[in-house]
Amino acid sequence: MEVKREGLLLFSAGAINQFPKTTAKGSNFRNNEKGCKRQQPFAAICQRLVLMAGRNRMTRHTDNFRGPIPVPHPVAIEEELELQRRDIQRLLAENRHVIDDNVMLQRDLTAVKDEIHRLNQVIPKMHADKEAHRRELIERGLKLESELRSTEPLRAEVVQLRSEVQKLNTQRQDLSSQVQNLTKDINRMQGENKQVAAMKTDVDKLRKELVDVRRVFEYEKKGNEELVEQNRSVETNLISMAREIEKLRAEQASADRRLMGVGGYGMLNGSPETRYPGPYGDVYGAGPWGSYDRHGPPRH
């Protein structure tokens, strides 16, 4: 048992001596203050290994035990040593990772300190700029407020203009509706104008026909006037002839009166009571005036 503990102590000391004296970055680990702080876990590891070597082992002077102490099997010792060696290698690897992390953290800390120093220099300037910007905004707000107060009299005009704009909008809507109606009327009138063009052609044709008819009418009118003149001349001739006939009859009557003694009473004036016709026959009727006395002169 004492031999096993001594072997473990020697192994632990050899493992410590086998630990690299320098870090991955080339700095002296044991001479460095931070590296000295990192040596404390290894001493604890060695103590832990010694305790593990004596774990589950009986002391020399156990109660109610007489006889020689049994010697452990070499295979068990080798297995335990192998396990301890693996633990040591694992711890060494973890230590290396911790050292690398420490170096990275130191670098990050230095960068953070530099950033903090830079920010400490920039922050006052930012505060000054912010204060200047705030003052500028305050001055601008005061200026805008004064301008707003100066524009208060214009509010009534703005309200009036808005009402006028609304009225103009309503008028515009009315005018747009009227324009639509007028466009409809224009389209309708254009269609009617197309019809009027056709009607105009018809009217022109009718006008030409009317001119032709009027020409014919004037021609016939002139012909009728000539006929009327001829009728009038014939009528005047007939009247003159009737007067001459009447005159002749009067002369005949006077001649008949003179011949009263020779003829009879019934021969007077060609009376219808006589049994003989008048001296001129029945050309103008039985009476002395004939048809002229009854119907006047003949008309054509």
Polypeptide structure, described:
Residues 1-40, 56-63 and 264-295 have low confidence and may be disordered. By secondary structure, this protein is mainly alpha-helical. The termini are far apart. It has 2 domains: 2-58 and 71-148, no CATH class; 192-300. It is rod-shaped. Helix 1 runs antiparallel to helix 2 (33-53). The protein has helices spanning 2-18, 33-53, 74-150, 154-258, 290-295. 3% of the residues are buried.
The gist of it:
One of its GO terms (biological process) is cell differentiation. The chain is mostly helical and 300 residues long. It folds into 2 domains: 2-58 and 71-148, no CATH class; 192-300.
Keywords:
300 residues; mainly alpha; 0% strand; rod-shaped; disordered N terminus; flowering; coiled coil; FLX/FLX-like
Secondary-structure topology with pairs:
Elements: H1 2-18, H2 33-53, H3 74-150, H4 154-258, H5 290-295
Helix pairs in contact: 1-2, 2-3
Organism: Buddleja alternifolia
Coiled coil: 158-258
Protein name: Protein FLX-like 3
- Outline type: rod-shaped
Q: Say how many strands there are.
A: 0
Number of helices: 5
Work out the radius of gyration.
Answer: 81 Å
Q: Which series of helices and strands comes N to C?
A: HHHHH
Counting helices, strands and paired strands, the structural category is: mainly alpha
C-alpha termini separation: 188 Å
Low-confidence stretches: 1-40, 56-63, 264-295
Strand fraction equals under 5%
Major sheet summary line? none
Mean pLDDT: 73
User: Which percent range fits the helix content?
Assistant: over 70%
The tally of domains stands at 2
